[in-house]
Each structure stands twice: as C-alpha cells, then as structure tokens.
Amino acid sequence: MAPIDSDDNRTAGEGEEPRAGRRKAARYVVPVAVVGVAAATIGLVPALADSGDPDLPKVTAEQLIEKIAQSDVQQLSGTVRINTDLGLPDLGGLESGLMSGGPGSGGDGEGSAADPSAKLTALVSGSHTLRVAADGPDRQKLSLMENAAEYSLIHNGKDVWGYDSQSNEVYHSTAPDGAERPEKDVPATPKDFAEKALKSVDDTTSVTVGGTAQVAGRDAYRLVVEPKQDGSTVGAITVAVDAETGTPLKFTLTPASGGAAVVDVGFTKVSFAKPDASTFDFTPPAGAKVTEADEAGAAAKAPEQGRKAEGDLAKEMDGLKVIGEGWNAIATFDTGARGGLPTGAEGGDLGDLGGLGGFLGSFGDQVKGDFGSGTVFKTRLVNALITDDGKVYAGAVTKDALVKAADAAK
After folding, report:
1. CB-neighbour burial class of residue 284 (10 A; exposed 0-12, middle 13-18, buried 19+)
2. What distance, in Å, lies between the first and last C-alpha atoms of the chain?
3. Residue 154: Cβ within 10 Å count
4. What is the pTM of this model?
5. Which residues contact 185 (CB under 8 A, 6 or more apart)?
6. CA–CA separation, 27 vs 14, rounded Å?
7. Which residues contact 351 (CB under 8 A, 6 or more apart)?
8. Residue 9, pLDDT score
9. More reliable by pLDDT, 336 or 269
10. Which helix (H) or strand (E) holds 95?
11. In what order do the strands lie in the sheet with 205-215?
12. In angstroms, how far is CA 294 from the centroid of its own chain?
C-alpha cells in the first residue's frame, strides 16, 4: 500500500465532494474492462469523514479501506439493483440476437439457456434486479428477475445449478470443495465491484472519505476514489461502506464527461441474518430439460464460425501489452489484420462477418495521426482505437489519449 502523506488532513467537507463524474477474452470483456481497466490501481490521500447525516465516528480513508478488507460477512440476503449505462449504440435487437444464437444460449444455439456463462452477460447493460443470499463459502444463491421470469444460480455444497424459468431449462455442474460463487468473473454485487476497484494501490489515485449516507436502511461511509491523472474517462468511484460490518453496500462509477452513472450497483434491501437452509435447495422441475456441464462442454466443441472467431480473439489477446499506468493504462495488441475493420469482403483478414464490420464502422470516429489512420469506438467509459494496419488500443481513456499512444508506439 502506498505511503500516506500525513501533511494532507482535509476533511470531506473541505472541497472534497466527488466529481460527477479477458470470460475470459470476448465473453466477459465489458465487465472486466469496466472495473479492471478503469480502476487498475489506487493510491491513498487521507481525509476525515465529515459530520454528515447519519452522524458516525470520523475515520480516515486508509481505515475505511482496511475495514473493507477485514470484513468477514459470511451470511446475508437481500435485493440488489444494477444499472449500467455505457452509452452503447442501439443495435435494434442485433446484440440480443447474437447472444441468443451463441454457445450456451439454448434454443437454436448449442448448450443450455440456463448456462450462467450466457445468462449473466445480461448484467453488462441496462437495469436489472437481483436477489442474493449467502451462507458461508459453500452456499450462495443469485436470482435475476426479468419480465415476470426468473433465472437462478444456486451453489449448494458440491452442486451448482442454473435454472431458467422462461425456457424451463436446467444447467448442472459440480464445484470443487470450498469454491466461491460460480462465474465470479461477472461482478454482481457491490462487494464484487469494490474488490476489483481496490485490488491494488499506488500513487495515481486520490482516495478520500466523502461523508456518510444511508443505504438500504444501513448507516454507511462514502469512500470516494478519483484519478489524479488527466486523460481518463473516469470521474469518480464512490463506495458506500456499511459502518458496522465493513460490507460495501453500493458502488457507483461516474464518468468524467458528467451525466448519469456508468455503473450503479447497490442493495435496496439487506439483512445479515442467517438465511433459511431451504433457500439453497433445488430440485429440477418436472419436465425441465437438464444439461450437465460435461454435455455442454462437448457441444461447445462444434466447429461453429462464432466459436472460431472467439478462439482467434483469445490467441490475439496472448500478445496483449499495457502502455502507461494507473487510470491511463491502455491495452494494445496486434490482430495481424490489414485494412481496418472486417467488412465481410472476400479475403477479409478478420473473417466474414456478413458486412457487420462496415455496420459497426458507422458508429466510430475516423482519426489520423503519425500512426496512420483508424477508427475510434467510444462508450461513456471504455474507448478503443482500431488502426488500419490491424492494431488495437483500448482503455478508459479519451480519444486523444488513444491517438497519442498509437503515435508513440509507431
């Protein structure tokens, strides 16, 4: 942990209000980018909590981070609301169509509609309500409530069950002893997001205590994380920390450009009482289609074009390098392709996408520099430059920062 500058003893009330701000490769790239690239490293600037409402004892930022790290809540239940607004263009249902035809999607695709690797990717956009429960390392349950349907992921001992009520499909796998909640790569609770954001520390970030708040009826401190560097698209990360248990109750990431939060995840109800044992019981309903993980794995080996593309991407990611540090870190790799985005034309280096490349290109900004020319694709947080000679530069940084990095690498 970076040393603390003891000369800085500002309180949250003295000008410290926060500004408004690879699965592994393709499948989880968005959620990992949001909390991995955007908040790669964190340093400490001490500050004291002000006497806001509720009135809580003063703590320093370091003490509050230690409180999170030392929190050992094993039992809880509650309701979590997730809102994600990356500012992605409306593809008119194209995204959901691609997802529904992919591996693990069920229906006309291979695998099961209850496979968590397909289901939980829904959390990367829009608004979602989750019911969560935990009783130690061997029992967890997460239920995604959508349009009068429910998807549940239950870990009970060695069994992991996924159930999709809409399709009446069940996915079953076996977890090793002591395994934590399955599909941990997809953050789903405030604690998941906070742990990723606070994973490492250095001097590229200001961390202060920004007063107090009430979340889900609980008294909490507000930990405010902001980049010191220019060029980041991140404005601030705010974590509401339960004053009694140290459990993160709410995680909010606001962009430097202002406006609504990019990611806002918080409990609307929470209890730290032991959940009833029956919460984690599951028996496949009558008539449900049950898919074992081994069967789904065999189906995923079919020589489908989409899977080949994903495999190609994974190989390309092997050459990934990181330019810069902290909030300005930029991931870069060479696809080996030439001619920019794939257009579906014969001989396209990145494969035939049926014209999808040209369609996606219409959402990008054409840029030029010492590196040559390329296209920048922007969201409210993560931006990516794809050059015409096949190189990719991506990070939670501005368009100008991407062009500058490409020029420097030339």
Report:
1. middle
2. 35
3. 21
4. 0.74
5. 23, 24, 28, 31, 32
6. 43
7. 305, 308, 309, 312, 342
8. 36
9. 269
10. helix 94-100
11. 205-215, 218-227, 234-242, 248-255, 263-271, 75-84, 126-135, 139-146, 149-156, 159-164, 169-174, 289-292
12. 27
Question: Considering only 71-75, 145-149, 381-385, which range has the smallest mean pLDDT?
Answer: 145-149
Q: What is the pLDDT of residue 123?
A: 81
The DSSP H or E segment spanning 140 is: strand 139-146
CA distances from 49 to 211, 236, 238 (A): 5, 17, 14
Q: Which two tokens stand for residue 311?
A: 């495999």
pLDDT at res. 87 = 81
Name which of 367, 29, 39, 85 is nearest 229 in CA terms: 39
Query: Is 169's pLDDT higher than 90?
Result: yes
Structure tokens at 87: 């500012």
Domains of the chain in sequence order? 29-294 (2.50.20.10), 319-409 (3.30.310)
Cβ neighbours of residue 223 closer than 8 Å, sequence gap 6 or more: 61, 64, 65, 68, 207, 208, 209, 210, 238, 239, 240, 241
The Cα–Cα gap between 104 and 120 comes to 11
DSSP for 279-297, written as a single string: GG---PPTT-EEEEHHHHH
Here the tokens at position 336 are 């080996």
Q: What is the pLDDT of residues 182-203, one digit of tens each?
A: 444 557 788 888 877 776 556 8
Q: Which residues contact 376 (CB under 8 A, 6 or more apart)?
A: 364, 365, 367, 383, 384, 385, 399, 402, 403
* 339 residue type, one letter: G
Residues in CB range of 61: below 8 A, 6 or more apart: 44, 45, 46, 47, 207, 208, 209, 223
